[in-house]
Amino acid sequence: AFLVTIAGMQAWNYYQQKQAQQAADLYALLQQVKMSGDASRINDAAQLLTEGFPSSGYAPRASLIAAQADVDAGNSKRALQNLQWVIDHAKEPTMHDVARLRMAGILLDEEKYDDALKTLNAQHGETFSGLYLDRKGDILVAAKKFSEARLSYQAAIEKLSKTNNYHNIVQMKLDALGDSE
Hints:
The protein contains 9 helices and no strands. It is mainly alpha-helical. The chain is elongated, with a radius of gyration of 20 Å.
């Protein structure tokens, strides 16, 4: 029984290493395909990872790459599907946060302000609070809710480090709002 257990553990470790190597190889292939800028090819390569190795750390990253290629190609519907895959399957909370932030940006571009705000209201890591509040401010400005946007930008500034260049960008957005209603 002891030998069988050891053999089983060795086989399992070998299998996991093999899977990890295959996922890494597919991710490297995706990086090469990404250079082509062809959203269809990028999605095909990403799909190999998301379907073949969904529990790997490479799969959500591949889906984020595919979503960006879709945005660049003007296919927001497929971009949203790729981002939703990340939210539904990624193990890392940071990946969820990034996907929601990008999803809210797409919804903002589509003028679906309520859906974008709802996306940002999801639980997220503290390190993303400033970015979420900034994006919320952008959505509120687009929806012509200037006083709420001002509050959101002010809260974002409080969350962002003053040494961060992004802090200055959010401050400029707040300054540009002025006293508008």
